[in-house]
Amino acid sequence: MHRQYTIATWVLCLLLICSCSQAVQTPDAPSDAQAEEMKTTIAVAVEATLTMIASVHAAAPAGTAVNTPVPTPTTMAELSATALRPTAAPTVSLSSCTFDSDFESDVTIPDNSKIAFSTEFTKTWAIKNNGTCDWQPGFALRPAGGDRLSESESAPVPPAKAGETVQVSVRMKAPDDPGTYISKWQLCASADQCFGAVLFSKIIAVQP
Questions:
Q1: Contact call for residues 178 and 92 (beta carbons, < 8 A)
Q2: Where are the domains of the chain?
Q3: 11 CB neighbour count, 10 Å cutoff
Q4: Please, which residues have CB within 8 angstroms of residue 30's CB and are 6 or more apart in sequence?
Q5: Contact of 50 with 5, CB cutoff 8 Å
Q6: Which residue has the higher pLDDT, 62 or 131?
Q7: 105, 126 in Cβ contact below 8 A?
Q8: Residue 173: beta bridge partners?
Q9: What does the alpha-carbon distance between residue 71 and residue 65 come to, in Å, rounded to a whole number?
């Protein structure tokens, strides 16, 4: 369309130049008739130019152009952030539950069992997870005082869900001196996080 406007402008200029040339070619001042003729020529040229411009507008496609809004950088950033925002995975916070354990029964070696000097034995307890946290792999029984009847620093505890009862065992050995001995143990999530009931192994060491 810009090209058509340029052509129309050049046509108007040429018509004006032609009209002026006719005036220059007349040596004397133009008469009234000549002046009138020049005005008529210019008017015709202007009218022709306007007609051409009008025809250009008429040829343009009908209808109003609709501009599609382009998202601003801020909008794009917000959309990207929404699309890439990760969905939070469910987690279990230790602060939302509690660790606890309770003694259920002596499975082997009841209290005050008589054990001959230097005899090795396995003490087994049944304990219940009466907390709200599950016991995880890596939990263990650790010494909690009393007499040292085992060389072990820990004994494994099987995983247990809240409310479940499991059995735990520690390998021990009766002393060489007669007497009553009590070995204490407690369930621990780590070396410095022990909880729940303190378990006892109470034996009487006797001469064979």
A1: no
A2: 1-58, 98-206
A3: 14
A4: 23, 38
A5: no
A6: 131
A7: yes
A8: 120
A9: 19
* Number of other residues whose CB lies within 10 A of the CB of residue 8: 17
Interatomic CA distance for residues 83 and 85, integer angstroms: 6
Distance from C-alpha of 74 to C-alpha of 97, rounded to nearest angstrom: 43
* Its pTM surpasses 0.70: no
> What would you report as the CA-atom Rg of the chain, rounded to the nearest whole angstrom?
53
Whether pLDDT at 61 is above 90:
no
Start-to-end Cα distance in the chain? 120
* Assigned token pair, 23: 């005036």
The pLDDT of residue 96: 87
pLDDT above 70: residue 92: no
Angle at 170 between CA 178 and CA 153, to 5 degrees: 95
> For 86-90, 129-133, 198-202, which range has the lowest pLDDT when averaged over its residues?
86-90
Angle at CA of residue 16, ends 13 and 18, nearest 5°: 110
Query: Stretch 135-147: mean pLDDT, rounded?
Result: 97
Return the CATH number of 98-206, one of 3.40.50.2000, 2.60.40.10, 2.120.10.30, 2.10.109.10.
2.60.40.10
What is the pLDDT, as a whole number, of residue 167?
Answer: 98
Q: Is the pLDDT of residue 151 over 60?
A: yes
The pLDDT, as a whole number, for residue 154 is 96
Amino acid at 12: L
